[in-house]
């Protein structure tokens, strides 16, 4: 018996074709779904997705391709709306905030090279980009291999993977730099590296939430700020939503909050000093 293999994009097209009406989310730029097929067992390398491996002559020295550099960008007007793919409904984050997740990463390559992503940009398998079901578009994330400790920074500009056991799809080059191209997938940790702009110079951005915050540090690099935020949340056992990184005058400010009162903020300020030997300043945003 012959088994028909179908990519996620093809399955998505058939799903939409079978609907009597097109969901509102389909007004967004077409979502390019990375292939959901198993690795090609006949490939000598043993890891490429069916007909989705590298080109015959990929650019030399892919390890030298620089990571994506986080910068303040307005959220895409359409790509962050609720959408449906392969029978499941996804609601992307409406604002940038701290995010951390562990799971399986896959990659997509030449089958989608040059095709339109959910952001409307052409997919470049040799750029440091990635597809994620719900992280804001555009946004940035550090992806770390749990097997070898290697990390890359990628720009989220596409949607996918639409597979219950996968958390992110990296570009071919990003997967190559993490060392799992031949395996097809790897367990990774995904951490957002995004900043919210307090300067009002990014059109389309929502205003930062008002309230009482603790400012614990400021860094020129977004990833260093996120590292401190993650440490604070871990050491103080805080909820993931109780904290943010704010971009102000080219510095990334680490803030905890919002707090319901000065007393609550001061209690955590004492804990920050006691447990981490760090000073925190009370910041009130009205």
UniProtKB/TrEMBL annotation:
GO terms for molecular function: lytic endotransglycosylase activity; peptidoglycan binding. Signal peptide: none annotated. Residues 20-67 are annotated as: Disordered. Residues 206-285 form the SPOR domain. It comes from the Bacteria. Its EC number is 4.2.2.-. The keyword Isomerase does not apply. Its main location: membrane. Belongs to the RlpA family. NCBIfam families: rlpA. Lytic transglycosylase with a strong preference for naked glycan strands that lack stem peptides. This is Endolytic peptidoglycan transglycosylase RlpA. The gene is rlpA.
């Amino acid at each position: 018996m012959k088994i028909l293999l179908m990519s996620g994009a093809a399955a998505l097209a058939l799903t939409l074709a079978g609907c009597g009406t097109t969901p509102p989310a389909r007004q967004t730029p077409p979502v390019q779904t990375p292939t959901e097929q198993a690795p090609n067992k006949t490939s000598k390398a043993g890891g490429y997705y069916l007909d989705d491996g590298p080109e015959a002559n990929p650019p030399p020295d892919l390890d030298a391709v620089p990571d994506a550099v986080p910068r303040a960008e307005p959220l895409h007007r359409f790509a962050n709306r609720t959408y449906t793919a392969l029978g499941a409904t996804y609601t992307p984050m409406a604002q940038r905030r701290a995010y951390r997740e562990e799971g399986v990463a896959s990659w997509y390559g030449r089958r989608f090279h040059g095709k339109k992503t959910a952001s409307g940009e052409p997919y470049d398998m040799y750029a440091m980009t990635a597809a994620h079901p719900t992280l804001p578009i555009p946004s940035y994330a550090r992806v770390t291999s749990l097997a070898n400790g290697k990390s890359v920074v990628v720009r989220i500009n596409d949607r996918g993977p639409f597979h219950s056991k996968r958390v992110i799809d990296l570009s071919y080059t990003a997967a190559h730099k993490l060392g799992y191209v031949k395996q097809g997938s790897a367990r990774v940790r995904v951490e957002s590296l995004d900043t919210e702009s307090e300067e009002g110079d990014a059109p389309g951005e929502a205003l930062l939430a008002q309230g009482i915050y603790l400012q614990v540090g400021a860094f020129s690099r977004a990833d260093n700020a996120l590292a401190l935020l993650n440490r604070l949340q871990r050491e103080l056992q805080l909820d993931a939503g109780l904290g943010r990184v704010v971009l102000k005058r080219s510095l990334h400010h680490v803030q905890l909050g919002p707090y319901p009162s000065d007393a609550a903020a001061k209690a955590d300020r004492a804990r920050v000093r006691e447990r981490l030997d760090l000073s925190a300043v009370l910041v009130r945003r009205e």
